[in-house]
Amino acid sequence: MGRKRASSGMDALVGMPWPIAVVVGILLFSGVRYAIPWWFLRQDGGLAHGLASSFWQALSPLAWLLLAMCWMAALLSFLGARRRRILLDTCTTLESLSAPGWRQFEQLVGEAFRRQGYVVEETGLGGADGGIDLVLRKGSQRVLVQCKQWRRRQVGVSVVREMAGLLAHHRADGVKIVCVGTFTRDAEAFARGKAIELIDGVTLLEMIHAAKEVQRFAQAPSSPVEPILPKQQLIPGSIKACPRCGSTLVQRKNRRTGEHFLGCSRFPRCRG
Fold it and tell me: Does the predicted TM-score (pTM) go above 0.85?
């Protein structure tokens, strides 16, 4: 299991969406630069007024430093989000899943879940050897994720057992194990009936393609005229969650009839 990296306030700011980091910087600057001296000015007595003047001069450099730190974190957050989007958008094949390093693979998986509506925390508790790589949050739900970028090995039952132990230890709502390849039969048998979802390379790639379709539809300019579609054609915006397992639905085509339909991205494990 990888080592836990030391966390800091700067790490927390970089992990925020960049607009929030900008707002936090403005609030900290205003509080230190203006609110503290103003509070002393509101007090009675010459000492309080003297302290207000002293704080006005002494805290000014600190206020500007805090503002600069927050805005630097906002810039890093913006660049990181942009890098993750490009990483996901350029992923088209199973080979491209194996191309980046393990850290980039974690970011790729995190971005795929982020486009499913999760708030994603990159914990740094995993590493190349495993552990908790991501924490997903949606409402009150908290899910632990481990990413395995093994190219020539199947993920065995020992990895699933380890994550089952972490699931109980952290009292999470579920676990997802994501890999480039496949899982052994023992691993699939152990995960069956538990709050553990196994996502192999094919399923991950389908999830990424579905996320791209949703993103492309959301960014398409709206038209006042509704286009006329063939009877069987599906609109990308109609993609919803699978009614059986809650996974993403992807557009498929019936080979015999040529009709389009929505099927679960976890097929054949789930036939929703």
Answer: no
